[in-house]
Design goal:
Length: 158
């Protein structure tokens, strides 16, 4: 096991390196790298188990464009996709993305700040379309997320 100082140094080097080589530019590169470090720390994973990508569906032109971060379980190879809606704010919760019970679009199903939040979500039964009007477990962003299909009643109305 490595020391806290060694892990902190590795995180700093990771951010510096990924900021410099990012195909998305310096600022977006730093946002992606910091998102990866923050998610890895929250879930107790190594940085090699986190990948990031721009979120083209929820894109905007303001600073802090959304970042998708995929965490891969080292034991099962299961993948979990998280949305950092405002990656420039380190105190914002990640949103775990999964299929909408109504339209199957990839939408926020849980706010995740730490590993226990993910555990709580995974321990619940999957939601059904009938459950949606009666649940208080979904993030506020669920009802207006751009991941819903155009025919879903929970999708964003343009």
């Amino acid at each position: 096991m490595t020391s806290l100082a060694e892990r902190a140094h590795a995180a700093a080097v990771f951010i510096r390196h990924n900021t410099a080589v990012s195909p998305h530019g310096r600022y977006r590169g730093e946002e992606h790298a910091r998102t990866a470090v923050r998610l890895a720390a929250a879930l107790g994973l190594g940085l090699d188990q986190i990948t990031t990508a721009p979120d083209w569906q929820r894109r905007r032109t303001t600073p802090g464009e959304p970042v998708l971060a995929t965490a891969t379980c080292p034991d099962t190879s299961e993948k979990y996709v998280f949305l950092a809606r405002f990656p420039i704010y380190d105190d914002e919760a990640f949103e775990l993305l999964g299929p909408c019970p109504e339209c199957s679009g990839q939408v926020p199903l849980a706010a995740i700040r730490h590993l226990a939040d993910l555990g709580t979500h995974l321990a619940r039964s999957p939601l059904t379309p009938e459950d949606l009007p009666h649940t208080d477990t979904l993030p506020d962003t669920f009802t207006h997320d751009q991941g819903h299909t155009s025919t879903c009643r929970y999708g964003e109305t343009l």
